[in-house]
Design brief:
Elements (H helix, E strand, L loop, with lengths): L2 E8 L4 H13 L4 E6 L3 E3 L10 E10 L3 H14 L14 E7 L4 E2 L4 E2 L8 H10 L11 H7 L5 E3 L1
Antiparallel strand pairs: 1-4, 1-5, 2-4, 3-4, 3-8, 6-7
Helix pairs in contact: 3-4
The structure holds 7,8-dihydro-7,7-dimethyl-6-hydroxypterin.
Length: 158
């Protein structure tokens, strides 16, 4: 079964509660098991405009679902936790992103894996490095190299 990494983020409606509820919901997806989750991090919002700080984390899961099947389930969890189709880069109750899906490289309309913006986001790379410090992406890049090049952004482990 492929190991997958999911990025979790929230900056509305009690973000820590949103992440905890999402982890429980992910573990309840049929054919899917939550293996581990990183620490929770508080991070400064990336993107335009004023919005609250985020809570971010990364979860490691295994699943028998195909990538788009997993995406459907994650989007259902986002919708179930009150996420509206909000403005791009705006505040959100819950964001669940497939960062990595085993060794797969996917470029479809709905899904790009590895996640195309993970290299610019220390709130993704640092929690991921907590779980898998020696990780090499299917593109051949090491997580350590991405971390070295990643722009700094305020990030605090809780
Ligand atoms: N900024 C931070 N710090 N964490 C996020 O999860 C996050 N998610 C987003 C945007 C709006 C890009 N900014 C973020 O979608």
């Amino acid at each position: 079964m492929p190991r997958c990494y999911i990025g979790l983020g929230s900056n509305l409606s009690d973000p820590q509660r949103q992440l905890n509820a999402a982890l429980t919901a992910i573990d309840s997806i049929s054919g899917t098991r939550l293996l581990r989750c990183s620490s929770f991090y508080c991070s400064a919002p990336v993107g335009p405009g004023e919005q609250p700080d985020y809570i971010n984390a990364v979860a490691e899961i295994e699943t028998v679902l195909p990538p788009h099947g997993l995406l459907d389930q994650l989007q259902a969890i986002e919708a179930g936790q009150g996420r509206e189709r909000e403005i791009r880069w705006g505040a959100r109750t819950l964001d669940l992103d497939i960062l990595l899906f085993g060794e797969k490289i996917l470029d479809t309309e709905r899904l790009h894996v590895p996640h195309p913006r993970m290299a610019e986001r220390n709130f993704v790379l640092l929690p991921l490095a907590e779980l898998a410090p020696a990780l090499v992406l299917p593109t051949g890049e090491s997580l350590a190299a991405l971390l070295q090049r990643c722009p700094p952004n305020r990030l605090e482990k809780l």
